[in-house]
Every structure is written in structure tokens, then in C-alpha cells.
Amino acid sequence: xxxxxxxxxxxxxxxxxxxxxxxxxxxxxxxxxxxxxxxxxxxxxxxxxxxxxxxxxxxxxxxxxxxxxxxx
Length: 72
Known about the structure:
Layout: E1 5-10, E2 15-21, H1 25-35, E3 42-45, E4 53-55
Antiparallel strand pairs: 1-2, 2-3, 3-4
């Protein structure tokens, strides 16, 4: 796994999945607009149908779950 990838528990998938840090400007901007704070420290499940957002320490920081849309 790359440095910006980590295997973490995904509450949406209900299993350990590969998550990646949000590195693109578009992803970070979208999350910042959604949560109204800096998008540092957030991870996204890499499963294409999931894309759930979490932090390293909290598998379910949002209720309901927040999912990254496909940004073209």
C-alpha cells in the first residue's frame, strides 16, 4: 500500500477495506464545503460503490454517513 493508503474498518461496508487520504483539490474542496472545516485527516473507502468518509480514529464521524461523490 502507498503512504496515502491504509486498511481501516469501513462502517458502511462492515469490513476492513482500503482507504485513501483525500489528496485532490476537488475532493478536499468538496469535503470542506460539506463539513465547514479543514479536510485534513479524513480518509475515503476505495470501494467504488461505497466512498464513505471517515477519520483515522472514528469509523462513523457523520450521521448519516457522508460519501464522496464521483467528481468528474
